[in-house]
Design a protein that fits this description.
By secondary structure, the protein is an alpha/beta fold. It has 24 helices and ten strands.
């Protein structure tokens, strides 16, 4: 029967353990000199060798012919412990035996001397899963154990183990295996198994294993069944990952704030079977590397996950500020935390990409900090600050340099210099002649001066307004705002609620009303409507307006006094 690689290649001696020499050397010296403790506590992340070292130590202390602290794995004691026929060495899983009754039974049994070997050894895996009463039941025998008894406790969550248990054990912390040592071990196993594993494929597996040799061997076992040669692309296809090139390209679209292209890339990868959770994790790892290079350029080389060439990292790093990288990384981590509870993983990933491409949609503290940093950078470079980011250029679309002002601002004359302390909005002075507050009755409605018509006056009218740079792009952009005039009312036709909220402010509407009064010689009010203005609101020449007739009829009774 086929045996999984991580079981088949489990180390049998301390010398075969990879990346934990600071622990194995100490245990070998203790076995060789006979200075053994009655209780050990092995801690560390998954797949780093805790249970493996516990099994090796249980054989080494009972081995009849130890070799420099290592078990010989040939004597009856080693063979019996390895195949499970010697019951004096018992391995327990605290996740399923975490009650106080199980621990009391273990404590009552532990006082008896071993039947076939020198020491009775109990290996308790995932010891942090024991209940509080079970820890209390275990405490007494750990404090005063018989001479023939040894406990080896293993856990991945040291903070859940009581301090009273820790103080009675020798504690050894297993560290993550370095990618280089892990890749070297994977190549050795692949060579022995006849698997054609490339060096780049081994490096990718080592990076994905995150310091755990068991994870690396499991991934190698999974990828080796798909094709004769296990290279980088085969691993990406088998595991449903995007790959470094795709991840770097997507991060470049986020840097350019190209929301449409980022969503298209996500849709293409999703259709190709890529997992959105893995994609967000790869983006998060890349954002972390970029942030470390940005904030700690001298010592970040040893902290990077690797996988990206220097030119790519330098190019991406120049497009991000530290504040925006922090916002990107925070948003990705939040999305990854919400992903298991989300009703649609793809929708959650799309929302995350939209927030990454447009900081104004991110209401978090990191998003606000990124927007403030962007404003400070633009002000420091002397670039006019706009209320909303411009749409990034699509492939094949010509785009002006980011430092250039919008096209409609290039045609405007420079605004006059303001005196110190002058307000942001300049209201034109009232004309000297008296202002007619009511339209004069007549056969037809008046049009804008000069016969321009109601809709044609707006471009020159908007160009002459003295308003802050944040709202000028809206007023001068005909796709967003168009103005029409009828006596006493200046109507602004806007493209949506966002533009309406940007312009519907008292100081701005007052300035617009004052400018309309100066131009048309009438007091005016400003109103907003969403949509496009009608093609022509001017009545035909010679046709009387019913409203004008009604106003003329009412003026006949202005001087009547009722007694």
């Amino acid at each position: 029967m086929y045996q999984a690689l991580y079981r088949k290649w489990r180390p049998r001696t301390f010398d075969e353990v990879v990346g934990q020499s600071h622990i194995t050397d100490t245990l070998k010296r203790q076995v060789a000199t006979g200075r053994l403790s009655h209780a050990y506590l092995f801690t560390g992340t998954r797949g780093t060798g805790k249970t493996t070292c516990a099994k090796i130590l249980s054989r080494a202390v009972n081995c009849e012919h130890p070799v420099d602290g290592n078990p010989c794995n040939a004597c009856p004691a080693c063979l019996g412990i390895e195949n499970g026929s010697i019951l004096d060495v018992l391995e327990l899983d605290a996740a399923s035996n975490n009650g106080v009754d199980q621990v009391r039974a273990l404590r009552d049994e532990a006082v008896y001397t071993p039947a076939a070997v020198k020491k009775r050894v109990y290996i308790v895996d995932e010891v942090h899963m024991l209940s509080t009463p079970a820890f209390n039941a275990l405490l007494k025998i750990l404090e005063e154990p018989p001479e023939h008894l040894m406990f080896i406790l293993a856990t991945t969550e040291l903070h859940k183990v009581p301090a009273t248990i820790k103080s009675r054990c020798q504690q050894f912390a297993f560290k993550r295996i370095l990618p280089g040592a892990l890749a070297q071990r994977l190549e050795y196993v692949a060579e022995q198994e006849g698997i054609q594993l490339t060096s780049r494929g081994a490096a990718l597996l080592a990076r994905l294993a995150d310091g755990g040799l068991r994870d690396g061997l499991s991934l190698l076992d999974q990828c080796s069944g798909a094709n004769a040669q296990v290279d980088e692309q085969e691993i990406l296809d088998t595991l449903g990952l995007a790959g470094n090139l795709e991840t770097a390209a997507l991060m470049g679209r986020i840097a350019a704030r190209d929301t449409a292209a980022a969503l298209e890339a996500l849709g293409r990868l999703y259709a190709a079977g890529k997992d959105v959770g893995s994609l967000l994790e790869e983006l998060s790892a890349l954002a972390r590397d970029l942030l470390l290079r940005k904030t700690a350029p001298q010592g970040a080389a040893a902290l990077l996950t690797g996988g990206y060439d220097e030119a790519t990292m330098r190019e991406l790093g120049e497009q991000f500020s530290a504040a925006r990288l922090l916002q990107v990384l925070t948003s990705l981590q939040d999305a990854l935390a919400r992903l298991p509870r989300s009703g649609s993983r793809r929708t959650e990933a799309e929302l995350c990409l939209i927030r990454l491409c447009d900081e104004s949609l991110d209401s978090s503290v990191s998003g606000l900090s990124a927007r403030i940093a962007q404003l400070e950078e633009r002000l420091a470079r002397g670039i006019p600050v706009q209320s909303a980011p411009q749409e990034a250029a699509r492939p094949g679309k010509k785009q002006a340099p980011p430092d250039d002002p919008p096209p409609w601002e290039e045609e405007l004359p420079p605004p006059p210099e303001e005196e110190p302390g002058a307000p942001d909005f300049a209201v034109p002075e009232e004309p000297a002649q008296p202002v007619q507050t009511r339209p004069a009755p007549g056969p037809a409605r008046q049009t804008a001066p000069g016969g321009a018509g109601e809709g044609n006056f707006w471009p020159s009218f908007a160009a002459g307004l003295q308003v802050p740079p944040s709202v000028r792009p809206y007023l001068t952009n005909p796709e967003k705002v168009t103005g029409t005039w009828r006596p006493g009312v200046l109507t602004l036709w806007v493209d949506g609620e966002f533009t309406k909220n940007m312009l519907n402010r008292p100081n701005l509407t007052g300035a617009l009303a004052g400018a309309a009064q100066a131009r048309f010689g009438q007091a005016a009010r400003v109103e907003f409507r969403i949509g496009k203005p009608p093609a022509d609101q001017t009545p035909p020449a010679g046709e009387a307006d019913p409203l004008d007739s009604l106003v003329a009829f009412g003026e006949q009774f202005d001087n009547i006094v009722i007694k």
